[in-house]
Amino acid sequence: MCRSADGAVLLTRGSGLSAFPGVWSLPGGGIDHGEHPDDTVVREFAEETGLTVRIAGVRTVLADLARLPDGTIEHSDRIIYDVVVTGGELTPETAGTSDLAEWVAAADPAQRPLLPFTAGVLGVGSEPIEPVEGSFGTPEPTGRVQRFGAYALATDAAGRVLLTRIADGYPGGGHWHLPGGGTDFGETPERALARELYEETSQRGRITGLAGVSHRYDPAALGPEGVPLDWHVIRVLYQVTVPEPTVAAVTEAAGGSTAEAAWFTREEAGNLPLTELTRDALGRTG
């Protein structure tokens, strides 16, 4: 999301190489393997608009399903940033998935065909996404793996923090981690977090804020049974409060990536072997 001083928003139009030619969207695109999402949005913005930007904040995180022209169903996880222009000249992309970039007056986006997620972010009406029926699972990881995950910095009224220990044989095995995990096909980050929180800890919480976005790229990671994964995970971190904490226990089936779960004081947590995501999250909150 990039706005000018007079409130106009910068939009790009899908080219003939895109899935939806002639449909307008916020500038952006896919995260390359191993790339930090922050770097992605700066790179994609420059490619599609010719402008350099700096990130001002993370606005929201979304997920949606769309039926592509060939009939397949695409699940997209989207991190929506607020950005500010720092240089460059407005120039449309050539030979890419967009062919035009324009500043659109605040009252005008509703007059254009918009991708549904863009319409939602801008607060204007759009054609609804066609409902998708059926049950979809998560593919088994083989070779290069890129996952989108939602994680919780979950605390109770006493200030304790909820952590999970990664099972041996998984990346980070033996370390204590924030509860959470990958989103399933058709699942929003919020729903994925609620599911993972219960599966890994038996707790039910309430999201109180978006704490940040990070990633981890581990090309040497080994999965279960020593299978190389070339692992890249994009992580959204939410602040979560658990209003009625109970004894934490793993409820997912045996053999999963979570060995145990427990509540800890901040002092106790500081003496545990922690993943870098957990260390960073606890450090940012004192």
TrEMBL record:
Record bears the keyword Hydrolase: yes
Domain of life assignment: Bacteria
MF terms in GO: hydrolase activity
SUPFAM superfamilies, A to Z: Nudix
Domain Nudix hydrolase: 1-128, 143-286
Swiss-Prot/TrEMBL cofactor(s): Mg(2+)
Position of the signal peptide: none
Matches recorded under Pfam families: NUDIX
PANTHER family: 8-OXO-DGTP DIPHOSPHATASE-RELATED, GDP-MANNOSE MANNOSYL HYDROLASE
Sequence similarity: Belongs to the Nudix hydrolase family.
Protein name per UniProt: ADP-ribose pyrophosphatase YjhB, NUDIX family
Organism, as annotated: Actinoplanes philippinensis
Lineage, opening ranks: Bacteria, Bacillati, Actinomycetota, Actinomycetes, Micromonosporales
